[in-house]
Design a protein that fits this description.
With about 550 residues, the chain is an alpha/beta fold. The chain is built from 19 helices and 11 strands. The protein has a 5-stranded parallel beta sheet, sandwiched between helices. Helix 5 packs antiparallel against helix 7, helix 7 runs antiparallel to helix 9 and helix 7 runs parallel beside helix 10. It starts with a helix and ends with a strand.
Length: about 550
């Protein structure tokens, strides 16, 4: 529930004026509905009694009938305004939540980022956010408005009819609906969470099927993956049927509660009218008001059904949305040496050291190659220099300031990492490059393509307007790798971290690429996780991690 409350506060903070106005209109609409039905019941009964008593000619029918018309028209207008305000405000707030959630994925810790699959992230941005509209529209505002209207009607009926009738209606609806809601959520919370999990599993499998259909077909796994998705959809449908049944049962219980409260109100009213405590018209007023108040508890049917998945979605989104980081000091434009002194690093989620007591210095215009077998910690060290992996012991400074004390924007402007696995998106070559440096002109783009030995390849196609498919389709593995390297170079970092930069290239091309990197960034400090002799030969010196 804490996550639900946090999401509601975020939505309220985004659209406070519209939501408060919508809440006020929701209260007015429900109050006018109770007043409309109560007044109509009183008016019809009072007019009939006046006719039976022979005083119909002097009975005032104009003012009550005018009030009935006013309440009917006002209720319709109020409902329209309430829907427009609350839905518009909620959709705008959810749009903002999507932006913050995307920002959270972008700024997540490195280990979490590499464990987040694209289908999962897409589900967070779509399915989870879509579910959260119910926090406002089906839970908080309806419950709050319903309680306020119940309290207001209680006060009015107490003044007009008496405490017993007013208390029966108020206690019956509030306590009865609360009991039904709590009982229903105990039954449906787990079910709705499982239904949502099954729906997201189906979406993930379907997205994986569509995106990987070519690779799956080549491996002969296309039919198996399709069956996998169909199985997930069957499970989703079965759980949805169970949830729909539970929602209908909750709705039936709420309707029975409304019937019980209205019937009890009618019996109390008739009893008191026969005792002469008030006129029969007031008994009709209480009965019809009780019928109208059933509208205040109707939204609980959907809220009880969706509470579990709303709570689960709120928990996931609350965990992943971007929060404003605390400001950390940084010397603007700090440059100089990368100093690693007595550093010990461990693998993620482990206390076992990868290496211990490493001391290393890399200065401007210097290239250092890290050597050692797979698993010796070369990639982990690059991640740590980039501020993506914590230091277990020792000190790592950049320009005299600990890497951990750099603020994120300044660190990303100064240090750039080319990891072993990188991604390209669909679009043109120019768009792929300008993702790193939007202000770059065409001349600069051609220069960086020349540095990574892609100039002739791109010129032979459609130049900078050459279209790439999803994940860089249209380029070979080596070409895609070099295009990602070109994008890294456009950041013009002062410290460049390269993890297997020449993987998949022949020695002649690899040598030309390394020389092009140094030519494009003559003053940068370059640290390479080297796996090939061509890389260690290019470096000014090598450091072994074994």
């Amino acid at each position: 529930m804490k996550a639900l409350w946090r999401i509601f506060r975020l939505i309220l903070r985004e659209q406070p004026t519209s939501l408060w106005r919508g809440a006020a209109l929701s209260f007015v609409v429900l109050a006018m509905g109770a007043a409309l039905l109560g007044l109509s019941g009183w008016f019809i009964t009072a007019a009939a009694a006046a006719g039976l008593a022979g005083t119909g000619a002097v009975f005032d029918v104009f003012r009550p009938s005018a009030m009935v018309r006013f309440l009917a028209l006002g209720r319709a207008a109020g409902r329209y305004g309430e829907r427009v305000l609350t839905h518009d405000a909620t959709l705008r707030a959810l749009e903002s939540l999507r932006v913050r959630l995307l920002g959270g994925f972008v700024t997540a810790s490195y280990d979490r980022m590499i464990r987040t699959r694209g289908a999962q992230a897409l589900n967070r941005l779509t399915a989870d956010i879509d579910v959260l509209d119910g926090v406002v529209l089906r839970l908080v505002l309806p419950v709050l408005s319903g309680l306020l209207v119940q309290a207001a009607v209680f006060v009015v009926l107490w003044a007009l009819i008496g405490l017993s009738v007013a208390l029966w209606i108020f206690a019956g609806y509030v306590l009865g609906s609360a009991a039904i809601f709590l009982y229903a959520t105990r039954k449906t919370a787990s079910l709705s969470r499982r239904t949502e999990a099954a729906a997201q599993a189906f979406r993930s499998r379907l997205i994986d099927l569509i995106r990987g259909r070519r690779d799956l077909a080549v491996q002969g796994r296309l039919i198996a993956q399709a069956d996998f998705a169909v199985t997930a959809d069957s499970r989703r449908r079965a759980l949805q049927v169970q949830q729909d049944r539970a929602e209908r049962l909750t709705g039936a219980a709420l309707q029975m509660l409304g019937t019980l409260v209205a019937g009890g109100t009618l019996w109390l009213g008739m009893t008191k009218a026969q005792a002469g405590e008030f006129a029969p018209a007031f008994a009709a007023l209480g009965f019809f008001a009780a019928l109208a108040l059933a509208e205040t508890i109707a939204p609980l049917r959907r809220a009880a059904s969706d509470l579990g998945r709303m709570a689960e979605a709120a928990r996931r989104v609350s965990r992943d949305i971007k929060v404003s980081p605390a400001e950390r000091p940084v010397s603007a434009g700090a440059v100089g040496y990368l100093n690693i002194h007595g550093v010990r690093l461990t693998r993620p989620f482990s206390s076992v050291p990868v290496f211990d007591d490493l001391t290393l210095t890399v200065g401007p215009r210097e290239t250092v190659a890290l050597t050692g077998p797979s698993g010796s910690g070369k990639s982990t060290l690059l991640l740590s220099v980039a501020g993506l992996h914590p230091v277990a012991a020792g000190m790592m400074t950049l320009g005299g300031l600990p890497v951990a004390d750099w603020d994120e924007p300044s660190l990303r402007d100064t240090v750039v990492l080319l990891p072993q696995r990188s991604a390209l998106m669909g679009g043109t070559i120019a768009e792929a490059l300008r993702l790193a440096a939007p202000e770059s002109d065409d001349t600069t783009l051609w220069q960086v393509l020349d540095a990574v030995q892609l100039l002739d390849v791109i010129e032979a196609r459609d130049g900078l307007q050459t279209m790439l498919g999803a994940r860089g389709e249209g380029l070979s593995g080596g070409e895609a790798r070099r295009l990602v390297l070109a994008r890294v170079l456009l950041r013009r970092p002062k410290v460049l971290l390269l993890d297997e930069p020449t993987e998949g290239l022949d020695e002649t091309t690899a040598q030309a690429v390394l020389e092009g990197v140094r030519r494009f960034l003559p003053d940068a400090a370059i640290l390479i996780a080297a796996h090939r002799r061509i890389e260690t030969a290019f470096a000014d010196r090598t450091v072994s991690l074994i």
